[in-house]
Amino acid sequence: MIKAGIKWMFLIIGTTIGAGYASGREIWQFFGHESGLAILLFAIFFMICCAVIMYVSYHHKSNQYLPVLKEIVGIRLTKFYDFMIFFYLFSVTVVMIAGSGAMGQAFNFSKWWGIIIIVIVLILLFMKNINGLLSINLLIMPILIGGLLFILMKFINDQDLQLFSHWHEQRNWATVFPFTALNILPLIAVLGAVGDKVKTKGEIYIASIGSGLILGVITYIYNNSLIQIADEILLYEIPLFAILKDYPFEILIFMSVMLWFAILTTAASGVLGIVTRIQENFNQPFSLLVIVTLLLMVPLTTFGFSQLISVLYPLYGILNLYVLTRLLLFPLWLRKDRNHKLR
């Protein structure tokens, strides 16, 4: 149970920590100054949402997200959110692929090298269906989380920063709602595709609580680090590089590789959600659908990485507020339904 729970936990974290999050761009887009309370609420809301999504997918034994979506938003709104999830997954995967291109540019290579490499790796990854994604998450996520925490804590120590010095200033708390809403939509798609593989409720508790705690801690430390270099962030496509600029070249290379793997795992999660959704409509092999999907995405990567995040992410965060509300209140509605059936 514990091993399976950790496997799902890393799948959740791998879906969430992508180009936008791991680079710092997404965190800075929503948080910044006076956001400590918002980040604490995010960790709590995230745990609840993951637990509800996993519970519903486990209950339905689903292998794609549509049954889960129907129960969360209701039959009337399913078509709208089905389209939105699909478009979201498609566009965010494009952002991930563009992020790989931005990584290439950071090292003075053509962005097309970064794009071509990630597309090839994604195709190879899905030759084994979902097992390839689960395996790479188990391998990469602990290294990425450890490396990111090490760099951020080193930066905080070198700058002699106090993590809780401004805790009384919390006027930015409301950003928790669009930020959490943004991050739970892809989880409906990804966790909806593995409901038939979850064996016990214990796995759900381990995955949801563990992922919420880890992401809450990283987000808080990362945000406090970015506040110290707020004036320099505008000069960097990837804010993490502003933190790393004074560190040895070896650390820059290591974190760049880890950032690329974060981009890869989130892109893979997006592809998984898309292909599992359309597979029942197209009687074609899983790997072929992956190839066609990726080829359709490549031309759209000509938009800038930070431009895509600055426009799409806040928009999705606002549109998904209804889904977030349904997830947070789902335990109350479930109890109400049970009481109604008992009468």
Commentary on this structure:
The chain is an all-alpha fold and 343 residues long. The chain has one domain: Hydantoin permease (Orthogonal Bundle). Helix 9 packs across helix 14. The longest helix is centred in the N-terminal third of the chain and has 32 residues. The protein is globular.
Question: How are the SSEs placed, and which strands pair?
Answer:
Elements: H1 2-16, H2 19-22, H3 25-30, H4 36-60, H5 66-73, H6 75-106, H7 111-125, H8 131-158, H9 176-192, H10 201-228, H11 240-244, H12 249-278, H13 286-297, H14 305-319, H15 321-342
Helix pairs in contact: 1-8, 1-9, 1-10, 1-12, 4-5, 4-9, 4-10, 4-15, 5-6, 6-7, 6-12, 6-14, 8-10, 8-12, 9-12, 9-14, 9-15, 12-13
Number of strands: 0
The overall average pLDDT, rounded, is 83
Proportion of helical residues: over 70%
CATH topology category name = Hydantoin permease
The helix/strand series, from N terminus to C terminus, equals HHHHHHHHHHHHHHH
SS strand fraction: under 5%
The major β-sheet equals: none
Overall shape: globular
What is the CATH class? Mainly Alpha
Query: What would you report as the Rg, rounded to the nearest angstrom?
Result: 19 Å
